[in-house]
């Protein structure tokens, strides 16, 4: 009996242990599955956020390009009153027509319903078509009439008003009040993105079923649409504003003329990059090869440079030319939050930096101060001639004067020895081609790039008309007007268009 009782007692104890062991395994599996679910959900959420960030960046790029197109048209139309040559007028009008087409393309890339941009698109069409017709007339050698000039100027004035409203939207985009990706999500989920949405409640249900959307995102989508709907676009014309100089972006697909020296290796380029004067001598840096620059206009070795500190890391990107080991470009990713320096102090810091890199005889031309960063365009000057094609752009952090960006590709594309003959047209003779309405305040001899890879020796005349600044370029060999630039003065500096 004792044996039977012992046997009967042992069996339940064994079963209980097995059950406990199984429960533990199940619990571990449940915890593991829960952890996997959390990890998967977090990963998917991170992927979604990354995708939306990239998409928002693309939309913002289209918006800023649209803004630049509009500004370009506005400035170009205001130049028409300064042109005396039908050929020059034709070129200006052709540029306006092209910018209007580009503006339409950038506008159509934004995730907005037709109601939101139909009015603006219509104005762009009207302006582009009119300027195209006037361009053909001017190119045929027939000068514009005063009425036609006034029509173009009026279009430009109306476009300037549109530009002001776009800048208001820009402020909301910069502050995060407007996110275009929210409007994109509405369109993707079949929502009506017009401000007047009679089926808003039904659409909210659809949005929730497809993907969660907060009231903030919904407000951002409606803000983007309503701002475009409310724009006063009774007529249109869009200008080109080149903030860092009238010839800053004149890059042509040609062999670099300013590169000197022999081919260097990757190891040699790394040594040059690590001696870059913008690096903090108090920090230790690690350098890694970045995406190759073989397809660039100037072949370069690309490097990412990072300080080894865990806090207050210093991160830069540096490009060194494969020929000669020249510093072509660099970018410091740290942005200043305050302004403690004057514009003159910032320019002095930039000059000192260029001297360290071996760039001689560089003269500042145009500056702009935005978001505590001073951008300065420098042009090479020799024998009292200013060479606009040989240009370098420098950015200075206005909190402490450190250099945070350099772009010298244009300089190395164009810098060379030039055998220039004495001007056939004197400064006084060329001045006769300048409109008498322009009050000339300064003049000098320059080289400007136009018509592809052509360069022209020109007399530059700076002046004032209707309380606005203009620059007129007259060919020093033929006496022909070559270009007209408008200077826009802002609290941050001068914008040349």
Please tell me about this protein's structure.
The protein is built from eleven helices and 13 strands. Helices cover 46% and strands 22% of the residues. Strands 1, 2, 3, 4, 5, 6, 7, 8, 9, 10, 11, 12 and 13 form a 13-stranded mixed β-sheet that branches. It starts with a helix and ends with a strand. The radius of gyration is 31 Å and the shape is globular. With 497 residues, it is α+β, with helices and mostly antiparallel strands. The chain has helices at 2-79, 86-108, 114-139, 146-175, 180-188, 200-210, 215-229, 266-274, 343-357, 409-414, 427-431, and strands spanning 285-289, 300-307, 315-321, 327-332, 362-370, 373-382, 385-397, 403-407, 439-450, 454-465, 468-475, 481-490, 493-496.
How far is the N terminus from the C terminus?
110 Å
- Helicity level: 40-55%
Count of distinct strands: 13
Catalogue the unreliable spans. Answer: 1-10, 187-214, 233-245
Question: Taking Cα atoms only, what radius of gyration do you get, to the nearest Å?
Answer: 31 Å
Alpha-beta classification: alpha+beta
Mean pLDDT: 77
Largest sheet descriptor: 13 strands, mixed
Strand fraction equals 15-25%
The number of helical runs is 11
State the order of secondary-structure elements, H for helix, E for strand: HHHHHHHHEEEEHEEEEHHEEEEE
Overall shape: globular
List the keywords:
497 residues; alpha+beta; 13-stranded mixed β-sheet; 46% helix; globular; disordered N terminus
